[in-house]
Amino acid sequence: MPHKFLLFAFSLIIFSTPGHAETPPEKWFQIEYVLFEHLNSDRHVLRFEDVKYDLPVREQYYYLTSNENAPSPYQLTTIAQSESDFVDVIKRVSASRELKVYSSGSWQQAIQRGEQLPPLKITGGQSYNEGERFQLEGELQIRRERYMHVDIDVFLSDFTSLPYTDLKNWVFESDTSKWPLNWLLSPLAYQHPALNKAGESLVAKNTIHFKQSRRIKDTEIHYIDHPALGLLVTIKKIETPFKYGENAEGFDS
């Protein structure tokens, strides 16, 4: 009898350890946003010369895709318009003559409390260098703590193309082949054939930095303001969009 009691007590200890504890169920959320510029805002309150273009560099980002069978776990599938709560919001913002939409997105995602997730990569506006750079670049970070939080960090700039990818190359180049100094300081109006050898670089000007954080209440539409830019965002809890064991490939439980 004592042996049976010891075995029973030992089994209780084993199955009550963290390794055998049940993991909390996943919490799913639907996230939607639209990022825009105030075209008629008073830019005198902004001091462009004080803004350093210091774009965050991450090892990994999330990206939005329309592919329902996205091959990467870092590709978030855009939801259908029938599921979106932002269809009318985006239509109204896009129709306004005082606003210019740079980026918008809607997706569903499982987020655990305290989980460190990559931010969503955001780009928009005019593209440069065959789509390698954009007029607006940055990230949108979604965090779940006691409440849901959104961090927006984007730069909006007008880029000017100047010759030479690195000015040190111009300094050490022979006088017979280097570009004249007055050419070096002049923006490139067109793709000069000589650039195939010298290369070119993008210089940001009139840079606007939009960096703010906000706690987001469930289902509410929050407006994060800035003298030149604005962000509308909403987050709501949803049911798990699939049943475990059925079409659950690509999701980690």
Model description:
The structure is a single chain. The protein is mainly beta and 253 residues long. It has a domain at 25-157 and 206-238. Helix content is 15%, strand content 39%. It has helices at residues 2-15, 87-95, 167-172, 181-184, 195-198; strands spanning 28-38, 63-65, 75-77, 99-110, 120-128, 133-144, 148-163, 200-216, 221-225, 229-238. A four-stranded antiparallel sheet has the order 4-1-10-9, with helices on one face. The protein has a four-stranded antiparallel sheet with strand order 5-6-7-8, with no helix packed on it. A hairpin with a 3-residue loop joins strand 9 (221-225) and strand 10.
Largest sheet: 4 strands, antiparallel
- The helical percent reads 10-25%
Query: Which stretches of 5+ consecutive residues score pLDDT under 50?
Result: 248-253
Mean pLDDT: 81
User: What structural category characterises the helix and strand content?
Assistant: mainly beta
N- to C-terminal separation?
41 Å
Structural Rg = 25 Å
**Tally of separate helices:** 5
Descriptors:
single chain, 253 residues, mainly beta, 4-stranded antiparallel beta sheet, disordered C terminus
Structure in a nutshell:
Helix content is 15%, strand content 39%.
Note the topology.
Layout: H1 2-15, E1 28-38, E2 63-65, E3 75-77, H2 87-95, E4 99-110, E5 120-128, E6 133-144, E7 148-163, H3 167-172, H4 181-184, H5 195-198, E8 200-216, E9 221-225, E10 229-238
Parallel strand pairs: 2-3
Antiparallel strand pairs: 1-4, 1-10, 5-6, 6-7, 7-8, 9-10
